[in-house]
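Local shape tokens

___
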Amino acid sequence: MDRWSSEEPDDPALPTVLKSLDDDKCRTILTLLDNPKSASELCEECDLPSSTVYRKLELLRESMLVREYTEVRRDGPNATLYERDFTDISISITDDEFTMAVSRPEEDPEDRLATFWSAMKEESQ
């Protein structure tokens, strides 16, 4: 019997995380997100079409491995940026149950505010 659980109720589903990590393009994007980047920057660095990058970013967001936020700019249009949203993933098995723990970076107040505004933007669409 295959069963799984996560240690946190808000953690993503293990099958979704495994699907993301099994995808070589997703792994490439995760490697490049050592600091926040826009989708167009990722397209250039990965040498992938924008449709592929957006599809992979969506999968990584569903897996809660990447977070998206809007950077408000005074001198031009706002930018949507993506950043890696984990520091470590641990998958264990005991008896018949898989467990997963996802360690996340600590958020400073500025990050929490950016997350808040991104959520507000999504709800208003």
About this structure: Confidence is low (pLDDT under 50) at residues 1-9. The first strand starts at residue 3 and ends at 6.
